[in-house]
Amino acid sequence: MGAEQINTAIRELDRVIQENADTAITSRETSGSLMRQCRDLRDLLTTLRGDEDSKTGNPDVSSDPGRGPTRLSLVASAG
To answer: Which residues does the annotated region (Disordered) include (predicted)?
Structure first.
């Protein structure tokens, strides 16, 4: 394997690493946006229901920023 092949392989690794980093940043930003939308939806539903959710003890979606509500929990709380 020549020096040029090694340089090409290193450039390709750098490109893939940068692409992965960009994807991770985009995923984090998207997750934050989704969490805000979930909070807004929860607040809207709470308003429309007359604050029933606070009486039932449904968890705050912002209580664990690393783990949002599951689809099932959102459907259950909306029903």
So the answer is: 47-79
Question: Greatest CA span in the chain, whole angstroms?
Answer: 72
Please name the amino acid found at residue 63.
S
- Taking the model in full, what pTM does it have? 0.50
| Structure-token pair, residue 64 | 């664990």
Question: How far are the Cα atoms of 13, 30, 60, 63, 66 from residue 33, in angstroms, in the given order?
Answer: 30, 5, 16, 15, 13
The three-state (H, E, C) secondary structure of the chain, written as one string? CCHHHHHHHHHHHHHHHHHHHHHHHHHHHHHHHHHHHHHHHHHHHHHHHCCHHHHHCCCCCCCCCCCCCCHHHHHHHHC
Residue 14 has pLDDT above 90, yes or no: yes
Domain that holds residue 62: 3-78
